[in-house]
């Protein structure tokens, strides 16, 4: 019959729920809302059965008093889990009442994660990489959190706790974290977790007795406490911990941040030892507290799956099957090739098993099933550690993005982060982690310019060069080059670099040109010149000398001529004056090279040839009129000889076409004709 298929039934149910939802919109009386929700809940989890949020819509419209009655009367955990879905819709009074009533109910995992996620949603997070980090708890939400604490653990306890937070610099963030710890301790189902939360709460009193700012010991203890909380697989710890950490940034020291990087350098096994909990990270959805359009945190964090998901994802373990069959003996269902034998499916000789055999079977089954545990535990531990790494990376992101972090601390992170990336690249298990580290380095390379002492640049750049040695990963090499450009920019004043800074960077370029072992990469050596050509325009003769030095390797000479071409950009040449000596030297170099090209075209390297043409086409148009005859006299005859030699272009120089198209965007003859026109 038509209309009886499952698809049609689903459509009918959806339409019905939509109709009912629209009809119930007119109901505003709280007692009626409570009565309807209670009636629906007696039928079961209606929202899950119908795929709608019908009851959530009703609950979201309740006032504080009705919310309290509903939570008190709710009989199932699935009913209370809906608090997460409607929490953001309630006013502050309803939120306060809801959490106060929910936490004091008999403990369960559902209540623990629901309350944890609701507390987490009170914090609002905004992050723009390298520019802004804001983790806010509004005054209204802070008062609500305190009231919830008073309702749950007692007014006197909260009052005494607040009085013990005497350090003015950290009083507010530590007080808020203390309240969260007390509420987490009250709602957890695990006694060890409860003791840990209480211990951490008491530790905060010790820390807050003295000024945290400038107290190396206190700050280290506090950072360790925050990291310990992040190491536990509870997502709802994050916002409260992040809130405290961001508030510490104005007073934090470089050693405190490098301590985080040192932890990230640990292996998975070593880092797992940092944690104190073996619980699986809750599968509840993160509270949607990040403003739309802002950068999401830990977007590559590996959420831990539920046990059932992990089991279902595993392939059949043949060794386990064999163990089970041996354990069951005559009671085993016969399996062939990993699948149940259809002819005998569901049949076993269980009726023939006596009591002694049954007891022996139980023992063997216990051994067989215990074999499953280590594999699953290992996978869960790995995922938990990876989640911890992402959270620590978030702390580094906040450090680089906050306007409250001193420029000196940000600069001090450069070398440790590069070392971290190198360590991660050596570990195949860290392939995804190194991407996050490189992203942090890229953020650093694009930070806004700050005032830094010249001696700091002169000290840091050689360290950067030393760390770059041996790096073969293209992404890491690229970001190291960007960092070199960033460091050079810090030494610029109105576009002019100090002689000491410029000399330091040029020395590295010369080391690159003359080295025999290739320890300094081309990207690093040329980065500052290509990014800030105006600062190096006076070094054009030096670059030309390197480019046409036959003792250097050709690919390095190619990099040198490309740098020389970059210096001849029209915007750079507008403010530069070209001296007669430079023109004469250029003319001789180019004339000799072009003559060699005609005499021995088979020795020509296409990319270097293209670089020379690119340089000439950029340089010649900017020569002053009184110097043009000198340059024309030196190179025009050779250019004429080269362009008129048709055979050479059909033969050995044909290989240069592709390189010229790639480097200059035109064929070589077209470029030479344009140069000739400029000379004439």
TrEMBL record:
UniProt xrefs under InterPro entries: DNA_pol_V/MYBBP1A (IPR007015)
MF terms (GO), sorted A to Z: RNA binding; sequence-specific DNA binding; transcription corepressor activity
Keywords from the UniProt entry: Nucleus
Cellular compartment(s): Nucleus
An example Gene Ontology CC term for this record: nucleolus
Region ranges (Disordered): 272-309
Compositional bias annotation for Acidic residues: 279-309
Record PANTHER family: MYB-BINDING PROTEIN 1A, MYB-BINDING PROTEIN 1A FAMILY MEMBER
Name of the featured protein: ARM repeat-containing protein
Organism: Heterorhabditis bacteriophora
